[in-house]
Design a protein that fits this description.
The structure holds 2 protein chains of 2 kinds.
Chain A lengths: L13 H45 L12 H18 L6 H11 L4 E9 L4 E8 L2 H14 L2 E14 L2 E12 L2
Antiparallel strand pairs in A: 1-2, 2-4, 3-4
Chain B lengths: L1 H11 L5 E8 L2 E10 L2 E11 L12 H17 L7 E5 L4 E8 L6 H15 L6 E11 L2 E10 H14 L3 E6 H8 L1 H5 L4 E7 L3 E7 L5 E8 L6 H22 L5 E8 L1 H14 L4 E4 L5 E3 L10 H6 L5
Parallel strand pairs in B: 1-4, 3-14, 4-8, 9-12, 12-13
Antiparallel strand pairs in B: 1-2, 2-3, 5-7, 6-7, 9-10, 10-11
Classes of the chains: A alpha+beta, B alpha/beta.
Chain lengths: 178, 317
């Protein structure tokens, strides 16, 4: 065993590791510099072509595609599309939206039997069944409080017997908000 | 992984080409620059300064002595510039307290180890309060730990540091001469399976260092040489001290067996001292030639350089 006692301040055990880290950083810096230098050279080589294209564009030398519509024709076409949309547009809610709302509002123990949807008038007539009268009351209450409909009318209510099971069938008329 | 990392570290941080050894021996300060070659070390620079006092001999330096030492180091730095070479200083052995201490266990943190070792050293030697200490764990096993402690007068170390700082010398290693000599002949020492002793004779000091069968330092003593009583009487006194110390070391613990005493001394001291030692001791005296492996340009003589300074010029890796 060699003697290693020392009264001089040692350089510190980290010195070697720091030197290694500095060397790695220097290598990375050199690599980054080389990459940047090569990129700059490539960009410099492309510059005349790009400048020429820019000059041509400024001079309107770049050919405009012939199949593009003119501005006036585009305006007329937009007006036609709007008119067609107006003709086919619905007064109330779209059917998918209506179904989504109904799915959320219908309580457990009640089910939809049929649905008539008149989009032009914004009216919906639905027939539903429930195992108890409380379901009907709950469904009506939810429809009114939902804010999706301007009118909720119970137009018909009847008892229906199917085997040993008894169900309440009801018909509700809905008018969507404009 | 460790080997790969070591290879990378060696590649990033190559071993120094050599070292500068700065030795304080008596009233002389000597600087030697030795370059590592394939078969040894080539001494390229040697410079020596004489002082009107002996550094580290008194309790603390006087202001005038500090200035003189700084000027001497400045002149040495001009003659032997450090550059990027490591500077290794060899201090006179009698200036230090050399103590090997046994513990049941040692704390894991180096600072705590130093604190507990210092506490123990201060109890054994109150003068350590004004000294600077250096430690090395020699052995650490379950239930037993051995620690080497060195203590040197802080004021002298500060004086030396100030001198080095003023001249631009940056010491990498500052240790006593005996330790440099021990490391220099570590291969020779490691060849024996028994306890052993190394006597190092410098122009103004001498020391003896004992190691155990595992080649761990166990005990050391050093003295300033008495130059007033004549050379023969001086050698006789050293031989007498050595005999007493060897017997004390061997008897201190059962099973200790010293089969040879290694002697490292300059040529003028070697033969007369070995003769007296052989007359007293039954174990053979093994000569260690410090100049072996050192070469020099024709204008420089390696033989004139004290062994301690040459030992300090070998880089401690």
């Amino acid at each position: 065993m060699k003697i290693t006692t020392n009264f001089a301040t040692p350089a510190g055990w980290m010195a070697l590791y720091l030197a290694g880290a500095c060397f790695l950083l220097a290598v990375m810096a050199v690599i980054a510099s080389m990459v940047l230098f090569i990129s700059a050279r490539q960009f410099r080589a492309e510059m005349p072509v790009l400048e020429e294209q820019l000059a041509r564009y400024r001079n309107r030398e770049i050919p405009v595609s012939s199949d593009l519509l003119s501005h006036d024709k585009l305006v007329a076409l937009r007006a036609q599309v709007q008119a067609l949309n107006g003709l086919s547009g619905t007064a109330g809610q779209a059917l998918p939206m209506l179904l989504i709302h109904l799915e959320k509002l219908i309580p457990d123990g009640a089910w939809l039997v049929s649905l008539q949807y008149r989009s032009r008038e914004g009216e919906t007539k639905l027939v539903a069944e429930a195992d108890r009268a409380e379901r009907l009351t709950e469904f009506m209450k939810r429809l009114e409080q939902s804010g999706y409909f301007s009118q909720v009318l119970l137009t018909r209510q009847a008892q229906r017997q199917e085997g040993a099971q008894q169900a309440i069938q009801f018909e509700i008329q809905l008018r969507g908000k404009p | 992984m460790s080997r790969s990392w070591n290879k990378l570290a060696t590649w990033l941080w190559p071993a120094p080409p050599g070292a500068i050894g700065l030795g304080i021996s008596g009233n002389r300060v000597v600087a030697v620059r030795a370059r590592r070659t394939g078969d040894g070390y080539r001494v390229t620079h040697v410079a020596e300064e004489c002082l009107p006092f002996v550094p580290f001999r008194d309790a603390m330096p006087r202001a005038k002595e500090s200035a003189i030492l700084a000027q001497a180091i400045q002149r040495l730095a001009k003659a032997v510039p450090q550059g990027h070479w490591p500077l290794q200083i060899a201090l006179p052995d009698p200036a230090a307290i050399f103590q090997v201490m046994d513990f049941d266990s040692l704390p894991g943190i180096a600072r705590e180890r130093a604190a507990i070792a210092r506490f123990r050293l201060e109890r054994e030697c109150p003068d350590v309060l004004r000294m600077e200490c250096a430690f090395q764990v020699l052995n650490e096993e379950k239930g037993h730990a051995t620690l080497l402690a060195l203590a040197i007068e802080r004021s002298w170390l500060d004086c030396l540091r100030d001198g080095c700082r003023a001249t631009g010398y940056v010491p990498n290693v500052t240790d006593i001469t005996a330790n440099h000599v021990f490391n220099r002949f570590h291969d020779v020492i490691g060849a024996s399976a028994d306890d052993g002793a190394l006597i190092s004779i410098e122009p103004d000091t001498w020391s003896i260092l004992f190691w155990d069968h595992a080649h761990r330092p166990r005990f050391a003593r050093s003295r300033w040489r008495d130059t007033g009583s004549g050379e023969d009487a001086g050698y006789e006194m050293i031989a007498q001290d050595v005999e007493r110390l060897v017997r004390a070391y061997a008897l201190a613990q059962p099973g200790r067996r010293i089969n040879g005493i290694h002697l490292c001394a300059a040529a003028p001291d070697r033969e007369p001292f070995a003769e007296r030692l052989n007359a007293r001791m039954s174990v053979p005296c093994i000569h260690l030639d410090m100049a072996e492996g050192f070469f020099a340009t024709p204008e420089i003589s390696v033989l004139g350089i004290s062994p301690g300074v040459l030992a300090a010029a070998i880089p401690r890796l």
